[in-house]
Amino acid sequence: LLAYLHPLAHTASIANVIINSSFLALLLKMIRRFKSSTLRAVLVTLLGLLVRHATLIVPDEGGEKNGVLAVLVELTSDDAVALRRRAVACVGELLFYIATQEDAADDAPAGEPAGWPTPTAAAAAVVACLSDRDDDAIVQHYAAKTVENTLSQPASAVRAEFSAKDVGRKLVSLFARAPEHSTLRTTVAMALAHHVGHGRDAA
C-alpha cells in the first residue's frame, strides 16, 4: 500500500483527497504505534509528500495531543536520526503551508472551516533543532530552511513565532558552528538576513 501511495502523493488532486480523508488519522496512528523506526520514517516520508503536494489541507481534529503537528513534534526529538530528519522536514512543509494560508482563512466566508491555530509548539520544536541539542547537520539544515522559508512570507502568526530575538541568537550560534562554505551555513545566513530584516521592520 505504501509503495502504491508514494508516487500518487506527487499529484496535487490525489494528495488533497488523501490528506483530508480518514486515512490521515490512520497514518498518524501507525506512526505512533509502530516500533520500527525505519517503517515510521517511511510513513513520515509519505506524510511529507502529501503535505508538500496538497493544495488544500483542512486542520485535522486531533488537536494539540493527537493532531498531525503534535505527532510530528514528538518525532523531532526521537532517538533515530533518520526519523528526526523526516519529521523536521515535514513540520517545515506544514508550517510553510499554514503561513501561506492565513490570509485566505481570514477572508473565508462564514461557515467555512476555521484556519489552523497558531502552531506554537511546532515552531518551538523547529527552533530547538537550531541549537546544539541536535548535532545532526541535516536536521539543523531543515530547521534553518523552515525559518528561512517562513520568514520570506508576508506577515503571519507563524512568521511571528520565528521573528523572536531568541531565534536570531540561535541562528547566529548555528552559523558560527556550521562548516565554512557548507550548504547549512548558506541557509542559516539567508534565514538570518530575513530575521534581521523583520527586526528592522518592527523597529
Task: Please state the overall shape, judged from the principal axes of the Cα atoms.
Answer: globular
Tally of separate helices: 12
Q: What is the total tally of β strands?
A: 0
Q: Kindly state the mean pLDDT as a whole number?
A: 88
SS strand fraction: under 5%
Helix content: over 70%
How is the main sheet built? Answer: none
Low-confidence stretches: none
| Structural Rg | 17 Å
Q: How many angstroms separate the termini?
A: 52 Å
Q: What's the helix-strand series?
A: HHHHHHHHHHHH
Oligomer: single chain
- Structural class based on helices, strands and sheet pairing: mainly alpha
Helices and strands in order, then pairings?
Layout: H1 2-8, H2 12-19, H3 23-33, H4 37-53, H5 63-66, H6 68-75, H7 81-106, H8 120-128, H9 137-151, H10 157-162, H11 165-177, H12 183-202
Helix pairs in contact: 2-4, 3-4, 4-7, 6-7, 7-8, 7-9, 9-12, 11-12
Write a structural description.
The protein is mainly alpha-helical. It has 12 helices and no strands. The protein is globular, with a radius of gyration of 17 Å. The mean pLDDT is about 90.
